[in-house]
Amino acid sequence: MSAEEGDFQALLETNLDGYLLVDAGGCLVGANEAYLHMSGYTLDELLSLKIHDLDAIETSTETDKHSEKIRAQGSDRFLSRHRRKDGSSFPVEVSTRFIPNRNLSVGFIRDLTVIVETETALRESEAHHRELIEILGEGIAITNLQETVILANPVAESIFGTPSGQFVGRNLGEFLDASEWNRVTRQTLLRVEGQSSAYQLRIRRTDGLLRTIQLTASPRRDNSGQVIGSLAVFRDITEELKLEEALRLSQKMESLGNLAGGLAHDMNNVLGAILGLATTNLDLHPEGSRLHSTFQTITKACLRGRNMVKSLLDFTRKDMTGERSVSLNGLVQEEARLLERTIPANVAIQLDLDPQVGTILGDPDALSLVLMNLCVNAVDAMPEGGSLSLGTRSQPDGRVLLTVADTGSGMSPETLEHAVEPFYTTKPHGKGTGLGLSLAYSTVKAHHGDLTIQSRLGQGTTVEMRFKPVHAQAEPAIREDGEATRPGASCHILLVDDDELIQSAVATQLEAMGHEATVTSSGEQAMDLVNQGFRPDMVILDMNMPGWGGARTLPRLRAALPEVPILLSTGRADQRALDLARAIPGVTILAKPFGFRELQAALAAILPDR
Asked: Kind of pairing, strands 139-144 and 28-31?
């Protein structure tokens, strides 16, 4: 062997790729250690084989034809699979050349196992990632620096309202107004600087619906590390925001209700004392006299104050007290009669009443106040005149619909968003309290109904209230100014109330009726008297007092005085008071503030033989 051939042989032996020498008959005549390691053969075992014994793809005939082709064209490069000694196969890249002067073919064999496995794993990984993107419950989109979508999953298409496969290629600017687009472009600049960010975005879907999405966007880079776009993960939070707003409003209403409850208790005691004394003295002076007129004015002022306190308490009512059947059509007709005498002549009232609409269970006073507030708002929205429409309808779901609609100025989306919040008003100072719509909302909710408002600037406002009907006749309301009940025989009455004004006023009323009053300022004091042997003919018990209060005193009184009727007096006839009155026999609720005739009627009802 010449020096040149020796160098060539050494080069072949040390090559990291395997090599094979094949003679004209296809017999293996040489191989290096690299190929022996790949195939698992020893050199002697390998030299006893032919090339077609190693090829795991071609048949022996195909291998012979391939060898002839190589000799004819001088070289070839191709992919194949070789068979190991243990019978397994592995992918190879073959680069072969024919050496005419030696009548041999030399082939360099590169084992592609690691490369193929890596490529397979990469393809599987990409397929797995794409599958995850496809099934993930959140929207995923990849955009370039111009915010054109280059990849999106089905959830993203659904959120933006695009048909399947048609979100890709569209620019986000198509779904945004100018202010939202400016926000996106500012965020894109942060992405170019390598920053990720999370923010909310309002989009307009292809069907025109406005939705709010919460998204997190991160920079997307190329192989050189340069930012080429964004990867965004997002979800539609529109309904979540509505629920959060409803919860916030509910909490605000509850806080106001707690405040109103405390104020109402004190106000009712003040009003109760004034109303009681005013109505007591009203009948002592002949009609037309100066004193009679004075006490009549005081009485009317107290009744107005009572209605104002009741309105505050209605904010957080979850149930209506004193429920009875109310005719919706009758309620609307009565309100229309009142409006006709008070509203400007340039506002026309239109009634569209469904005669099949029956009655609902509710508080007629509260519903009348709601209807009045809505009508006043409607009239205020039509200073130049217009049409006020009041209507009722039976709904396919079985509920009944009460509608108040106007042709007035309407509300902007921002105003509509806050319309039912307490104390929110767009009226000039002194022209509104901001309680009308919030009172309507809470009252309808307390009637287990729902209220919706539709309004657009310049196109009027429609308020819709839906209630569950009852199959009963409407009951007439009890007149507050009804005839006084004929006074009965004298009784000894135990009055339990912590407020000095109520003590003085109610005691005076009882004495005017011919009764005797024993006054205590707490449940504990009342029980001390009873335990000492005091036996009244009846008890007037305040619900809200320090110490035991009415709730703890009532069962003790009933146990000690099982036959004595009890008037449970409260400025807030809530569910707790109603439950007590139902659970303990012989208990009647008397709402504060009450006048002389109301107290007299209550006594006559529970002491009929006196």
From this structure: unpaired
Map residue 195 onto helix, strand or coil.
coil
Q: Give kind and range of the element (H or E) at residue 580.
A: helix 575-583
Q: Cis (ω within 30 of 0) for the bond into 593? A: yes
Amino acid 525: pLDDT: 95
Q: Please check whether residue 571 is in contact with residue 542, taking contact to mean a CB–CB distance below 8 angstroms.
A: no
H or E segment to which residue 98 belongs:
strand 89-99
Q: Which pLDDT value is given to residue 128? A: 58
pLDDT reported for residue 517? 94
Q: Please report where in the chains the tokens 């104020």 appear, as a residue.
A: 263
- Distance, in Å, from the CA atom of 251 to the CA atom of 258, rounded to the nearest integer, reads 11
Residue 291 CB partners (closer than 8 Å, separation 6+): 281, 285
**Whole-number Cα distances in Å, 501 to 270, 275, 300:** 7, 11, 19
Indicate the burial class of 147 (C-beta count within 10 angstroms; 0-12, 13-18, 19 or more): buried
pLDDT for 310 equals: 67
Q: How many CB atoms lie within 10 A of CB 304?
A: 11
- Count of positions (residues) in the chain: 610
Whether the CB-CB separation of 408 and 381 falls below 8 Å is answered with: yes
Report pLDDT for 431: 46
Q: What is the DSSP string of 306-346?
A: HHHHHHHHGGG-SS-SS-EEEEHHHHHHHHHHHHHTTS-TT
Looking at residue 44, its pLDDT comes to: 93
Q: What is the DSSP letter of 603?
A: H
For 135, how many CA atoms within 13 A lie in the half-sphere containing its CB? 5
606: exposed, middle or buried (Cβ count in 10 Å: 0-12, 13-18, 19+):
middle
State the Cα–Cα distance between residues 179 and 192, nearest whole angstrom.
Answer: 21
Distance between CA atoms of 107 and 21, rounded to whole angstroms? 7
How many C-beta atoms lie closer than 10 Å to residue 225's C-beta? 8
Structure-derived torsion over alpha carbons of residues 67, 69, 71, 72, reported in degrees to the nearest 10: 160
Beta-bridge partners for 108:
19, 95
- Tell me what pLDDT residue 608 has: 62
| Tokens matching residue 453 | 């408002």
The DSSP annotation for 277-293 comes to HHHHHHTTS-TTSHHHH
Report d(CA 327, CA 123) in Å as an integer.
Answer: 71
DSSP alpha helix (H) spans, 396-494: 413-417, 436-446
CA distance 194 to 229: 10
Which residue numbers in the chain have pLDDT < 50? 1, 3-4, 7, 318-319, 429-434, 472-487
Give residue 9's identity as a one-letter amino acid code: Q
Nearest to 91 by CA among 59, 121, 61, 55: 55
Q: How far, in Å, CA of 544 to CA of 522, rounded?
A: 10
Sort 149 into a burial class: Cβ within 10 Å, 0-12 / 13-18 / 19+: buried
Pure H helices in 426-534: 436-446, 500-512, 523-531
CA distance 406 to 260: 31
Q: Which two three-digit tokens encode residue 59?
A: 């048949």
User: What are the helix (H) ranges across 74-153?
Assistant: 113-135
**236 in Cβ contact with 213 (< 8 Å):** yes
| CA–CA gap between residue 479 and residue 465 (Å, rounded) | 27
Tokens 């990632």 identify what position? 129
Location of structure tokens 């195909």 = 62
Give the phi and the psi of residue 455 in degrees, each rounded to 5.
Answer: -160, 145
